[in-house]
């Protein structure tokens, strides 16, 4: 996600026709902030230190870009662990993620304008020549229309914008004759067939050579697309039209936006996540500001900034009003249902929403931007990176982190708006974490699991397009950049488009905007385009005062729902029954269930089924409580299923030349030494003979005191473990025998025992897929002696390297892991297992509905241990465990219920802004509850399958 270059708020307190004033306003604010005298708060950073950090960003960019150019180009992306190019079709498919790869040297095109921002003009000139010489846009490959638009079309247009700027300056690019623009136009025409639908919404995918629907195209049968996919075209398409004079692109993008606007849910003014491109029906009716919707909102506001068309601002303001009313629960942003916007649709947030504070800066709404950004920063401090999704009580929901730039983007814009040096410190932390945890010898690797610190063989092009741009700009002074950044707007991929396009080739007819927009409250700047300078009256401590109350929001978080319990205490009412507290043997609980219209059916097999008939509830409020209780049960159930699984482990290569920088994701074993409870195991590796480890080893002298490598297959995992243990191995790594398998593409699993007692196995055993395993095998071939560390989480490299002879650059980039979580104490683990026993007895599964107005849940009274045993005995060698989910202790309930510790002021604010707090006061008619019931069940099922 990204922003307008300097557009901090929209300029003046009256609607803008031409966006030129933005530039001046933004610049002025920047100067005021930068020269403010600081009396307290974060210490100002002097120019020298800022330059040092800027230089560090340049060095990091060189490391990423240099390795891509040297080892991957002309492939689309670099695979930083295996140090080669990712070529689509030659690597195992990663599903939708691969739709960005069109065999068009994606990373090079996405990096073009970054080179100019980072003052690498010579390299830019070389890169443009390479694009013109090597890139083919006519490949027989099916690509995502959205990704191709934002990364490739955007990249070519950003490159063109800066090429003509440089040419005009008279030194570089003197030979340039709009060749990038011609390529952009060619690509634009290739994307147009995607719009051949009655709605005008584009198909999600297109074949670059054959277009759509023809048999050779292998695409065109899709019915759905995401809102962001259809609503994130206008900046690139309008720029293409205005640069070239061919109006068709802007017309198509406008038509898609007009359709989405028409389809918004009329009472909430929200849009869903996915829409049917033929009928316009919402397919997924949940709504947030993150995955699937994010850049639709971004482009409405930026389209106004770039094109000066009021209708886009009016639409944005209408949606923004709805977002702040329903989704924003500062500091959280929580998805809701479009038709029931007071009902949260999930209890977790995704990492893509981290762009939103930046967009709020552009809107001029600084306070919630500061709050959400601060919350996100605390999550980052806890896990080093923002996990792909995290719960409302800040536990990891999806543990990957593909080096996304959204948080850096918001940090940059908040710094520009506030001038608060705190945001420079935030940027410094981002740089340190990237170097400490993601930097590998051949580039930067995405995090596979932020909890273990393991890597994925992936460096997405947006890392170069966005991350380095925002980090560099954060520390740069005006004179560090060779052009005026305020003259440009950033696309969602951080490509630069010149603001002068607003007055060029304005031939596309604009929509007549009169009475169709919601009436908004002007006192809240809804109809104006506020200047952050006015909102933010020159007070350097303003941002700090907003952050202060949120200081410990993550560490002291309460599981969601507690707020409402507190409220009930305060009002004297009995708190509603929470699913996690429910006990089927407690008569009081059964009474509450009855009031809520929930009945308990004891099934013959010992399970208990919960069924809700909203109509049998004592009141509509009780029915609503019942609905919520059932929803909590569903969520609890899926959470518990995940929690019964062991988390993944890490194999870290610590010997030369890896020095702990390569961390492989490994599957755990249900037997042997538990690495989460014991110190890690470190040793040199040796292949066992026979390699499958299925009989007594013939090379015990080679594996004695070492970590034995064994191939998967032909006998039980436990048998292999016993054989290597008998030969004196101190640990074992089982490597998959399916060639090409990888944890990038296959679900990781835990190795089960053999159905017998496995207490005799004392050594730790881990599993690696073939691709990860071959990194170790290749290392042995090349370096002979390879030492690894088996652990539950990647270890601090400084500690690993203690006492070893190592190059100084490695030590310098590996300071202590200050943020590493402490291993839980014995008490903690006892508490955890106690909790688990309770939760096991409450496990529930969703079963089919019998009637539309009923929901059914079945509860296993004591199912989990038996389930585990069954699974293990059915398929001892291959028990699936995916996704590996959060095993962290939950937060402190005791603290949460201590009302005296809650500042009154804060509670009042929560009450005002948090729809959940006032839940008890809202009365929804029974009819509408019944009518919506089906949709709720569908939505929750969908959410479970949900992917970013
Ligand atoms: C980028 O490609 C764009 O910012 C897009 O809008 C969504 N996010 C990715 C990076 O995370």
Automatic annotation (TrEMBL):
CDD domains named among the record's database cross-references: PA_EDEM3_like
Necessary cofactors: Ca(2+)
Keyword Endoplasmic reticulum carried by entry: yes
Enzyme active site: 147 (proton donor), 294, 388 (proton donor), 406
Low complexity biased stretches: 855-864
MF (Gene Ontology): calcium ion binding; mannosyl-oligosaccharide 1,2-alpha-mannosidase activity
Classification via Pfam families: Glyco_hydro_47, PA
Chain intervals for the UniProt region annotation (Disordered): 848-925
Keyword terms of this UniProt record: Calcium, Endoplasmic reticulum, Glycoprotein, Glycosidase, Hydrolase, Metal-binding, Signal, Unfolded protein response
EC numbers: 3.2.1.-
UniProt biased composition (Polar residues): 865-890
PA domain sequence ranges: 688-774
Compartmental location: Endoplasmic reticulum
Pathway: Protein modification; protein glycosylation
GO cellular component, one term: endoplasmic reticulum quality control compartment
PANTHER family xrefs: ER DEGRADATION-ENHANCING ALPHA-MANNOSIDASE-LIKE PROTEIN 2, ER DEGRADATION-ENHANCING ALPHA-MANNOSIDASE-LIKE PROTEIN 3
Name of this chain's protein: alpha-1,2-Mannosidase
């Amino acid at each position: 996600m990204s922003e307008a270059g300097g557009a901090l708020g929209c300029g003046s307190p009256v609607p803008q026709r031409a966006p030129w004033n933005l530039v001046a306003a933004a610049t002025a604010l920047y100067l005021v902030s930068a020269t403010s005298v600081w009396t307290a708060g974060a210490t100002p950073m002097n120019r020298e230190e800022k330059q040092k950090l800027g230089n560090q960003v340049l060095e990091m960019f060189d490391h990423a870009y240099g390795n891509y150019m040297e080892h991957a180009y002309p492939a689309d992306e670099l695979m930083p662990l295996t140090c080669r190019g990712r070529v689509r079709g030659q690597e195992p498919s990663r599903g939708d993620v691969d739709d960005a790869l069109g065999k068009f040297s994606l990373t090079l095109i996405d990096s073009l304008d970054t080179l100019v921002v980072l003052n690498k003009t010579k390299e830019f000139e070389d890169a443009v020549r390479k694009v013109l010489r090597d890139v083919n846009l006519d490949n027989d490959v099916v690509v995502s229309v959205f990704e191709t638009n934002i990364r490739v079309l955007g990249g070519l247009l950003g490159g063109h914008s800066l090429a003509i700027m440089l040419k005009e300056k008279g030194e570089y690019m003197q030979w340039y004759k709009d060749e990038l623009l011609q390529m952009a136009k060619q690509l634009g025409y290739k994307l147009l067939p995607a719009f051949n639908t009655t709605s005008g919404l584009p198909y999600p995918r297109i074949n670059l050579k054959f277009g759509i629907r023809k048999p050779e195209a292998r695409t065109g049968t899709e019915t759905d697309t995401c809102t962001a996919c259809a609503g994130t075209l206008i900046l690139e398409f309008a720029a293409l039209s205005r640069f070239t004079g061919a109006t068709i692109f802007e017309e198509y993008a406008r038509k898609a936006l007009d359709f989405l606007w028409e389809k918004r849910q009329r009472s909430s003014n929200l849009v869903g996540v996915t829409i049917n491109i033929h009928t316009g029906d919402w397919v997924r009716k949940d709504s947030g500001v993150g995955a699937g919707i994010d850049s639709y909102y971004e482009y409405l506001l930026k389209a106004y900034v770039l094109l000066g068309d009021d209708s886009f601002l009016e639409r944005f303001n209408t949606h923004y009003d709805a977002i702040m009313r329903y989704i924003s629960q500062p500091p959280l942003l929580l998805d809701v249902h479009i038709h029931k916007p007071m009902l949260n649709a999930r209890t977790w947030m995704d990492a893509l929403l981290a762009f939103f504070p930046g967009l709020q800066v552009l809107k001029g709404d600084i306070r919630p931007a500061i709050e959400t950004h601060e919350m996100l920063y605390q999550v980052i401090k806890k896990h080093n990176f923002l996990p792909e999704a995290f719960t409302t009580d800040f536990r990891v929901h999806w543990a990957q982190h593909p080096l996304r730039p959204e948080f850096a983007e918001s940090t940059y814009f908040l710094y520009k708006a506030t001038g608060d040096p705190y945001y420079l410190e935030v940027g410094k932390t981002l740089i340190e974490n990237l170097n400490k945890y993601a930097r590998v010898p051949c580039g930067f690797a995405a995090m596979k699991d932020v909890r273990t610190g393991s890597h994925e063989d992936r460096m997405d092009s947006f890392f170069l397009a966005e991350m380095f741009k925002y980090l560099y700009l954060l520390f740069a002074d005006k004179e560090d950049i060779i052009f005026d950044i305020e003259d440009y707007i950033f696309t969602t991929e951080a490509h630069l488009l010149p603001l002068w396009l607003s007055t060029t080739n304005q031939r596309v007819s604009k929509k007549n905007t009169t009475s169709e927009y919601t009436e908004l409250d002007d006192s809240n700047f809804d109809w104006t385009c506020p200047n952050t300078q006015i909102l933010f009256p020159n007070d350097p401590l303003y941002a700090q005062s907003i952050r202060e109350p949120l200081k410990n929001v993550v560490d002291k978080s309460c599981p969601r729902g507690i707020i409402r319990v507190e409220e009930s205490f305060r009002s004297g009412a009995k708190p509603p029954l929470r699913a996690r507290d429910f006990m089927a043997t407690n008569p009081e609980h059964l009474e509450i269930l009855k009031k809520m219209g929930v009945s308990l059916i004891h099934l013959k097999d010992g399970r208990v089924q919960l069924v809700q008939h909203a109509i049998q509830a004592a009141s509509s409020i009780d029915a609503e409580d019942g609905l919520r209780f059932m929803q909590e049960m569903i969520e609890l159930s899926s959470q518990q299923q995940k929690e019964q699984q062991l988390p993944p482990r890490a194999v870290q290569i610590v010997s030369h030349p890896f020095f702990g920088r390569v961390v492989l994701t490994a599957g755990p074993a249900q037997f042997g030494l538990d690495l989460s409870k014991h110190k890690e195991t470190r040793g040199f590796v040796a292949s066992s003979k026979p390699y499958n480890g299925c009989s007594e080893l013939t090379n015990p002298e080679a594996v004695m005191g070492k970590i034995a490598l064994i191939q998967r297959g032909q006998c039980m995992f436990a048998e292999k473990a016993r054989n290597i243990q008998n030969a004196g191995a101190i640990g074992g790594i089982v490597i998959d025998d399916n060639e090409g398998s990888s944890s990038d593409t296959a679900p990781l699993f835990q190795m089960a025992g053999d159905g017998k007692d496995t207490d005799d196995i004392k050594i730790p055993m881990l599993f690696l897929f073939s691709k990860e395993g071959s990194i170790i095998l290749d290392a042995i071939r090349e370096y002979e002696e390879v030492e690894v560390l088996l652990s539950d989480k990647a270890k601090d490299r400084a500690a690993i390297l203690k006492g070893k002879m190592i190059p100084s650059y490695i030590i310098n980039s590996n300071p202590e892991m200050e943020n590493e979580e402490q291993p839980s104490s014995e008490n903690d683990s006892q508490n955890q297992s106690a909790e688990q026993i309770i939760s096991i007895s409450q496990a529930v599964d969703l079963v089919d509905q019998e009637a539309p107005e009923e929901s059914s849940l079945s509860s296993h009274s004591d199912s989990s241990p038996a389930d585990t045993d069954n699974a293990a005995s059915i398929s001892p060698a291959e028990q699936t465990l995916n996704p590996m989910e959060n095993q962290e202790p939950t937060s402190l309930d005791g603290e949460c219920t201590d009302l005296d510790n809650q500042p009154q002021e804060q509670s009042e604010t929560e009450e005002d802004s948090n729809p959940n707090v006032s839940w008890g006061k809202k009365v929804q008619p029974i009819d509408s509850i019944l009518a919506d019931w089906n949709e709720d069940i569908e939505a929750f099922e969908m959410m479970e399958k949900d992917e970013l």
